[in-house]
């Protein structure tokens, strides 16, 4: 067993001594892995190493220190072992379905095929990316050896039999799972459930394929990406006080589990120097900045997969026709075992396009028709290299070249700005090559409405002419090349809040792109609208703050201003409506007195601050479908229309009555901080913010518990970064809302959450001087023979 050496040197804080095996001695196992870790305030690690393997080693070590249970659980999933260790009885069980899906991925050797390095125009994964992963595994395993499974301080996995040393394949499988989150993984249930019709159904004769209901398709395919979202600004010299660029990163992600972010600063002198955040378990900064350029990501509207309607061979539902010739589906039977040792098996069916998928009510498998998907991200092994190269870019121009060459972003946009004051928006994500020409020729009439409304394409799988093809400038076959993707470079600003590319800047709408990427000329979400208005008013100096243009302070204030934009538009109309009609009938037929709710709304400050009273009433009203507009959207005024409540729509009053019913037992006039909290041990930390549906920029999603309130945040503002590029280098503010560690026994379990509650911040600590100014830095060194 390789030795692990850990030395702790106190700097401005008491020394922390970690016991461990004796220092490593020279061996023939390979070069030594060595990293210096400087833990700053809130436990944020600044890691310095001389190679990518050693850098990954440091990352793996600190992430295991803070979040070993999260990483172990993530690996349990991709190793298809959840039902064995966490329980599961049959295919209806979520753990079993997960294991069947990831068991198939293991059998398909997805990670091994990624590592084959098959040429697609990009050398990926590169030796540097492989070294990062190798080092991460060594760092994690070294920490696990030192503490032992029974010595883990986090009760979530202390002593659990499913905690084990990692392998490099574990991490590549986890990387694959993250990349296909919005495609194959979003269709996990439909892939697992797909099986040919029974013999009786086959003999029933040919039946016409149902016309898919867009709502049913979206309900089955979009929930997996609904838990992710973001706001981001790229501010150019025309929008900032200092003339340099600024970036706001404000991703909205789950507050628990494998999709938590982790703050870190990674440095190889002269090679790579990036501060920011990554999802736990990833060894490279994914949202952040270097000395001269910063970037963030928002979830893109582009689709990651396409459907292929298969015409089946008569009498054989596992064969399909292509250009009139039959092809048999390939089958693979996967078996998983539950905790009781019971085997559960499922036979999967694959086609030349990809796996067969079923969506009840939309895409069934009948005697005549089946549906398969092509997932454009299943071969996207370029992500780690792409983020590495982004971190090495020195300008927006460099960044764009990286995006064009690698085309690695799996399901996100990029928003960036640099020290010259140039801002960039781009949907450089991996998008199936569904051009307008292909859509017109290969999407039959029953499926055109689905494509027009959602961008989901159902291609005719019986013709090779309907294959995705290849763009000459694309990084891989079957995806749109960068020449077909929307990009905008500006000297003032670009934004995105999860609507399509169309209004990245209303002064220069992006138009003429394939529908598979997103829609154009359609209403924007309230969150998009308030995000644009905030930028425009700050540039003009009309938002009530002093001066014009952005500084890190004003950017922070704007981000956490907690305006509830939907209420700003309709509250007065709603109050007049409920004042004139103080009784309403709820959807269950009950008569509800609206007097108290109306009074609370009348006095509300229209914000979602801790002391704001009325947020729950408007939130539940919105969730009940009451936020309806009576005036039309105008494409010539997309930021400010529609804006008037549909007072004549009876559903408005019904929704308000439903909100009052749902809030029974919760004081309607309680301040938000008294009813919306985040638990940390026995402490309940009050949390500000509201739903994106209400038009709140600072998104916080906390489910209502009847009679209690909102006692647990499940999703929302996570990592916030407001970075500015000036003469002295990058500066600004940042925070990780749910704190650095998921371990209740860690000193970094609640500190940033309390800070976020008070709208506080931690400073950017990119330069040596900025880090030296932190009085809480403690330094230690980790090393072992590779």
From TrEMBL:
Signal peptide: 1-26
Keywords: Hydrolase, Signal, Zymogen
Gene Ontology MF: a single term: hydrolase activity, acting on carbon-nitrogen (but not peptide) bonds, in linear amides
Pfam families in the cross-refs: Penicil_amidase (PF01804)
Biological process (GO), any one: antibiotic biosynthetic process
Highest taxon of the lineage: Bacteria
Matching CDD domains: Ntn_CA (cd01936)
Family: Belongs to the peptidase S45 family.
Protein name, entry field: Penicillin amidase
Organism: Virgisporangium ochraceum
């Amino acid at each position: 067993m390789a030795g692990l050496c850990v030395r702790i040197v106190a700097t401005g804080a008491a020394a922390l001594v970690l016991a461990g095996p004796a220092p490593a001695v020279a061996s023939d196992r390979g070069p030594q892995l060595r990293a210096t870790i400087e833990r700053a305030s809130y436990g944020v690690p600044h890691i310095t190493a001389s190679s990518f393997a050693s850098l990954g080693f440091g990352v793996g070590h600190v992430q295991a220190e803070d979040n070993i249970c999260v990483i172990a659980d993530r690996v349990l999933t991709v190793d298809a072992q959840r039902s064995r260790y966490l329980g599961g009885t049959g295919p209806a069980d979520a753990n079993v379905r997960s294991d069947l899906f990831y068991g198939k991925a293991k059998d398909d050797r997805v990670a091994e095929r990624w590592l084959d390095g098959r040429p697609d125009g990009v050398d990926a994964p590169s030796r540097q990316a492989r070294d990062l992963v190798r080092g991460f595994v060594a760092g994690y395993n070294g920490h696990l050896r030192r503490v032992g499974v029974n010595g883990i301080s986090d009760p979530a996995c202390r002593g659990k039999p499913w905690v084990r040393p990692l392998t490099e394949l574990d991490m590549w499988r986890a990387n694959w799972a993250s990349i296909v989150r919005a495609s194959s993984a979003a269709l996990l249930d439909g892939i697992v459930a797909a099986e040919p019709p029974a013999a009786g159904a086959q003999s029933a004769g040919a039946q016409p394929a149902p016309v898919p209901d867009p709502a049913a398709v979206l309900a089955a395919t979009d929930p997996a990406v609904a838990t992710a979202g973001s706001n981001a600004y790229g501010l150019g010299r025309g929008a900032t006080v200092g003339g340099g660029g600024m970036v706001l990163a404000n991703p909205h992600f789950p507050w628990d589990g494998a999709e938590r972010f982790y703050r870190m600063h990674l440095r190889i002198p002269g090679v790579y120097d990036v501060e920011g955040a990554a999802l736990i378990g990833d060894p490279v900064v994914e949202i952040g900045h270097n000395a001269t350029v910063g970037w963030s990501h928002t979830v893109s509207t582009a689709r990651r997969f396409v459907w292929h309607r298969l015409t089946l061979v008569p009498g054989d539902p596992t064969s399909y026709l292509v250009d009139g010739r039959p092809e048999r589906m390939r089958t693979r039977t996967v078996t998983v075992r539950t905790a009781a040792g019971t085997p559960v098996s499922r036979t999967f069916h694959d086609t030349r396009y990809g796996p067969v998928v079923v969506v009840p009510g939309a895409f069934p498998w009948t005697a005549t028709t089946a549906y398969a998907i092509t997932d454009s991200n299943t071969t996207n092994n370029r992500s780690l290299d792409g983020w590495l190269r982004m971190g090495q870019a020195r300008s927006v121009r460099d960044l764009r070249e990286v995006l064009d060459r690698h085309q690695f972003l799996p399901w996100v946009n990029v928003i960036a700005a640099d020290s010259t004051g140039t801002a960039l928006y781009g949907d450089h994500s991996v998008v199936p090559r569904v051009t307008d020409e292909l859509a017109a020729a290969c999407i039959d009439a029953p499926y055109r409405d689905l494509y027009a409304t959602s961008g989901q394409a159902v291609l005719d799988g019986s013709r090779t002419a309907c294959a995705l093809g290849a763009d000459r400038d694309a990084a891989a076959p079957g995806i749109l090349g960068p020449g077909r993707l929307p990009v905008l470079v500006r000297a003032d600003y670009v934004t995105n809040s999860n609507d399509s590319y169309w209004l990245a800047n209303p002064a220069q709408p992006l138009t003429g792109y394939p529908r598979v990427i997103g829609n154009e000329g359609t209403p924007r979400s309230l969150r998009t609208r308030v995000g644009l208005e905030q930028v425009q008013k700050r540039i003009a100096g009309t938002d009530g703050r002093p001066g014009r243009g952005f500084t890190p302070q004003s950017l922070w204030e704007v981000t956490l201003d907690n305006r509830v934009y939907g209420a700003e538009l309709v509250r007065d109309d709603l109050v007049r409506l409920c004042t004139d009609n103080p009784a309403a009938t709820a959807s269950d037929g009950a008569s509800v007195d609206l007097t108290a709710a109306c009074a609370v709304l009348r006095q509300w400050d229209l914000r979602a601050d801790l002391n704001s009273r009325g947020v729950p009433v408007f939130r539940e009203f919105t969730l009940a479908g009451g936020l309806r507009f009576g005036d039309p959207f105008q494409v010539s005024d997309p930021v400010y229309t529609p804006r008037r409540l549909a007072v004549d729509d009876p559903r408005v009053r019904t929704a308000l009555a439903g909100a009052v019913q749902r809030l029974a037992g919760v004081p309607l006039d309680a301040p938000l901080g008294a009813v919306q909290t985040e638990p940390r041990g026995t402490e309940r930390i009050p949390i500000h913010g509201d739903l994106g549906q209400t038009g709140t920029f600072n998104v916080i999603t906390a489910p209502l518990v009847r009679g209690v309130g909102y006692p647990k945040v499940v999703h929302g503002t996570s990592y916030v970064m407001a970075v500015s590029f000036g003469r002295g280098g990058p500066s600004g503010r940042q925070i990780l809302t749910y704190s650095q560690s998921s371990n209740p026994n860690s000193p970094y379990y609640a500190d940033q959450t309390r800070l976020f509650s008070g709208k506080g911040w931690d400073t950017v600590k990119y330069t040596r001087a900025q880090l030296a100014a932190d009085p809480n830095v403690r330094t230690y060194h980790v090393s072992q023979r590779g």
